[in-house]
Amino acid sequence: MEFKRNIIITGGAGFIGSHVVRLFVNKYADYRIINLDKLTYAGNLANLKDIEDAPNYVFVKADICDFDTIMKLMADYHVDGIIHLAAESHVDRSIKDPFTFARTNVMGTLSLLQAAKLYWESLPEKYEGKRFYHISTDEVYGALELTHPEGVKSEISAHEVYGDEFFKETTKYNPHSPYSASKASSDHFVRAFHDTYGMPTVVTNCSNNYGPYQFPEKLIPLFINNIRHRKPLPVYGKGENVRDWLYVVDHARAIDVIFHEGKIADTYNIGGFNEWKNIDIIKVIIKTVDRLLGNPEGHSLELITYVTDRMGHDLRYAIDSTKLKNELGWEPSLQFEEGIEKTVRWYLDNQEWMDNVTSGDYQKYYENMYSGR
Ligand code: NAD
Ligand code: TYD
What we know:
binds nicotinamide-adenine-dinucleotide; binds thymidine-5'-diphosphate
């Protein structure tokens, strides 16, 4: 079958990538979606069980740093679009092992860019109809102050805000963690490939995502699982750090809009207008899990355990995504209360998924898949 478009999505077996792959495979039957993933500890093909047999879906196990393999894939599949999500994504891991972050996030992105450049420049139409879309984070902008530690109502947000400033597309990069430094570096390389070679690139910087299929090292799935197993809930520092939370399916919707309609060489911030102090969001999670498990209200509050703060812990992230709303009409579709209820329910209903991930069994899924099951 001839496909209208052939798109590589990197990191499609991870948390956000799996939602993007699912959306594209289901919505665009005439696109071939090539999920390119190394299947690190964070990659899990069980995240895509529902679409793995779709006729427009292909999975390729590969490392984005493997330039020769990427070059071959570009030509074999006549790739005309790349949506790049593959990355090392956990700040705590980056503090312990920064080299892996530089390798994957910086060198891996560069290897993809160079492969796309050589392949696209070899075609008669060159960059016409092509797109390299790089998914990044709000963490590249650094950290904001808590000028309103108690929270105030604001024009910009559906929820209370904790400071007067917001990250805009024009905010100067000021990353603090090895993770955000590696993402910032990759963002610069992507923009450099536009400015130097004319590659049609676009970059987006998104706030914290939550929802189904997130690896349980991140705050929300970790805490849901720990409450279920009556394990301590490690709150870093005083729990006063603020994050802006967006439901992952809304991020995938934004990626769809921006991939198709975003201006070449532009940057869009994506956020939920939904700031929460860690300790407050933790209390919402406890309340929701206790209610859904039939525990008395407040039952799991005793699991809260204050632990030593993360090194260099950014105080506040807050995204202004007005540009995306005004220019491309995107807005979050879910209120936080609805999103967190859906999320907690999903983890409680999918205990097998969680048990596989926490036991490491999910890493056998790929081997079973290709050994005739
Ligand atoms: P994740 O850690 O859940 O998934 C990362 C995926 O990339 C995994 O499937 C992993 O196997 C794959 N991968 C890692 N190294 C690879 C390599 N060398 N070659 C090929 N594949 C490799 O991450 P996520 O939370 O889904 O984040 C996806 C992207 O979105 C990342 O670029 C991240 O920086 C960005 N982002 C994440 C958030 C968030 O809240 N999670 C917010 C904003 C931006
Ligand atoms: P995380 O989910 O790791 O995302 P990020 O660091 O990219 O924002 O953490 C979200 C917030 O929760 C962050 O301020 C760190 C904090 N946190 C804890 O307090 N305890 C934990 O066990 C984890 C994983 C995070």
